[in-house]
Each structure stands twice: as structure tokens, then as C-alpha cells.
Specification:
This protein has helices at 16-41, 45-80, 85-113. It has 114 residues and is an all-alpha fold. Helix 1 (16-41) packs antiparallel against helix 2 (45-80) and helix 2 runs antiparallel to helix 3.
């Protein structure tokens, strides 16, 4: 999966209920990939505040997405395929690793605004 994933690039044979999740992952990765360039392009306090406001919304969406995966998608997959338990450990570890990274970015944006 690349950061520029479009619905036409969703893997063939994926259960229908996962297609939206895969597309969302691509969009979140694309936006996260753009963040360093956006930070580098900030030339004013208004620009910094605008970027910080965007990131707060982005972080909220990532958190909401992860909660839905944790509460809905992962249990549904485990019910359908018990072998999903092994990759689930890695996926949950990714979620836990992303949380402090998002916190650091948020703090850096607060510092940029100040």
C-alpha cells in the first residue's frame, strides 16, 4: 500500500467491509507524508496556527479510526478468521507506537505557534 492509494488500488478479494478502511489508511498516510513539507512552508504565525488547527482535526480522525478498528473491525475479523490474531498483535503495536509520535508532532506544532 502506498500513500497515494485510491479505491482502484484496493487489493482484489478483500472483504467489502475492509475496502473503506484500506482507502482511509492511504489517505491518512498521504496526509502524514505531506506534513513535513507543510511545516517547512510555514512562513507566518497565521500559517502555523492554521497548520496546528488542521493537525488537531487530523489527529482526532486518526484516533477515531483506531478506536473503530479496535472496537469493531478487529473483533469482526477475529470472528471470521482466528488466524488474524497473529497479525493483530502487530497492528495493535502500530497503534500504540503511533500515539506518542502523534503527541510529539502536536507538541511541536504548539511550539511552532508560540
Amino acid at each position: 500500500m502506498t500513500a497515494t492509494m485510491t479505491p482502484s488500488l484496493v487489493p482484489v478479494g478483500l472483504p467489502d467491509f475492509l475496502e473503506g478502511i484500506i482507502v482511509l489508511h492511504g489517505a491518512m498516510r498521504r496526509d502524514a507524508d505531506r506534513l513535513p513539507r507543510a511545516i517547512g512552508a510555514v512562513t507566518s504565525a497565521d500559517g502555523a496556527r492554521g497548520l496546528q488547527r488542521w493537525f488537531v482535526k487530523f489527529a482526532r480522525e486518526v484516533e477515531h479510526h483506531h478506536l473503530r478498528e479496535d472496537d469493531v473491525v478487529w473483533p469482526m475479523l477475529l470472528d471470521r478468521e482466528l488466524s488474524f490474531g497473529e497479525p493483530l498483535d502487530a497492528l495493535e503495536a502500530d497503534h500504540h507506537a503511533l500515539d506518542p509520535a502523534m503527541d510529539r508532532v502536536g507538541a511541536a506544532l504548539v511550539a511552532l505557534v508560540e
